[in-house]
Write a structure and sequence with these properties.
single chain; mainly beta; 6-stranded mixed beta sheet; 4 helices; 14% helix; 36% strand; globular
Length: 184
């Protein structure tokens, strides 16, 4: 069984929002699963606090940003296929800088979706998932943290990692079984 590691956008949690990216982060493909040609120097990303002041442990945006605490937990759980790049979250209104976050590039994107049992339609000749997604364990082998080739772009984690993460208190994180995906 596999889970999507997502930012919980379904509940009002008074969270700050990440606004866009920089010219350097914007030219990189953060969901392709490939190493970048060169390391990314530290970046400053803007946040918007109009909807709240709480900081999630995961901003699942065009540039995935995780708290260093979440990254450390994933590393402790055996995740070793990600590159991290320190970022500063900057509030243009208050001038406040927040440290302790990094941009995360997941290394590993595999064709792991099993069409049989998944809900999808063909779009431009490729599967477009509209509901439940079944992950083929034979294709995944021993990977516990990866992205899928045709899925919605979320990070996929093993049940073992999801179960371990559930024992901690996280802010703004949704662990969703891939079979429970509803197209959003």
């Amino acid at each position: 069984m596999f889970y999507f590691l997502r930012q919980n956008l379904f509940e009002q949690q008074n969270m700050v929002q990440l606004v866009g990216h920089t010219s350097e982060t914007g030219v990189l493909s953060w969901i392709a699963g490939h190493k970048f040609a060169a390391p990314l120097k530290p970046q400053s990303l803007m946040i918007d606090s109009k909807h709240g002041n709480n900081f999630p442990d995961f901003f699942d945006t065009t540039v995935p940003i995780m708290s260093n605490r979440l990254i450390a937990s994933l590393v402790t759980l055996g995740v070793d296929n990600m590159d991290t790049y320190p970022v500063v979250l900057h509030n243009n209104v208050s001038g406040q800088d927040v440290f302790g976050y990094s941009a995360v590039n997941v290394i590993g994107c595999i064709d792991a979706e099993k069409l049989e049992g998944s809900e999808y339609r063909l779009r431009f000749g490729e599967p477009y998932f509209t509901g439940a997604i079944v992950i083929d364990e034979l294709k995944v082998r021993d990977l516990t943290f990866f992205r899928t080739l045709y899925g919605p772009g979320f990070i996929v984690i093993s049940k073992n990692i999801a179960d371990a993460l559930k024992t901690e208190s996280w802010s703004g994180i949704l662990l969703q079984k891939t079979e429970d995906y509803e197209g959003v």
